Amino acid sequence: MIEFSLKHRIRFPAQKGQGSPTAPKGKFPLVILLHGVGDNEDNFAGLNTYLDERFAVVSLRGPFEQSPRSYGWFRISPFTDERVFFLDDAETSRQKIVKFIQEAVAHYAVDPDHIYLWGFNQGATLCLGVMVTEPALIRGVVAIGGEILPEMLHMRVSKSRLREFPVFLAYGVHDQIMPIIDGRNTRDLLATFTNELSYREYSTGHEVSSRMIQEASAWLSARLDSSRHSSVNAGVPRMQLGHVQLKVRDLDRSIAFYKKTLGLRLTERVGRVYGFLSGSFHHHDLALHAVGTEAMDLSPNSVGVQHIAFEVSDIQVFADACLNLLDAGIQVRVVDHFINWSLYFSDPDGHEIEIYWDTRDMKDRSDLWQGRDLPLTVEKIQAMAQAWSGKSTHEN
Asked: Are residues 137 and 286 in the same domain?
């Protein structure tokens, strides 16, 4: 019997024939789970039930024991308030993960062209370490609450080999272990490597929330589905909404409005006809097309787009947006949709705009709208923002 480099648990799909569309007969796409510090392979294996049933799933145990049933991927110095890592531990773990991937391909019925890593905390850090050093071994990475160790960057492959590498990167806005500023710095660094970065922020602390699991699992399924259309580059994501284009009367007025109310930045302008604005890494999320001051409004009963929506990361950003709109004299309608809180207002040409904060991760909230709305007040928004601010200040 083979002695693997790392202790682990494995689950294969219940029904044969559900593997990746391009896999050799009888072999399955594989997700390898890497737990956080202080956890173990049994607890993290609980993610099995949320993942696409086409995947075989391996849950690895970190090689460094902290206490019974408590493991990590590298030790942290107890003699300083700063996060000082035993870097030799991290490199040992990286090598063991790389070797385990090779062992799994050799001894399990898994498809070597469809292997994905999913990690949390230290596990996420090791996922990113394997990605930048051995990208040919894996098809994509889900990293939640992790970072890239500078020492592993020194060993990374050329940027050209990472340009189309898919990454799902996520952080909790209220994470006190991995502050959101560190997450955003990791995001900015990864954006210099890959064009296939999917970045998310959630209104959570240092945890893997149900919404994170749902969205990361859907992202993995999309990676797998894409191989039905391209056996050469299975990293290409499924079709997704790229941008919205609006017809406006006055280009200067509309650009100024969206920069002020939504904080979008102007990325390009073509004369007095087109303006492109972005709030992400895309060239533009919103395109504006000036059609002249005499353009007619659509009838309220006309078929067309009802509104466009922009998501914010947390309640504080939501509250700030609300106050900025009110201070600018813009009429705002606020609604609690159970799954999110929303601000509705109109731009200078009458297009309805929504700013929303997803509340599904909050206690006693719902995962479904079901046509239900509750009244929401500016005072309640401010009180919630102050409560979050006070919580963060207290925890710091």
From this structure: no
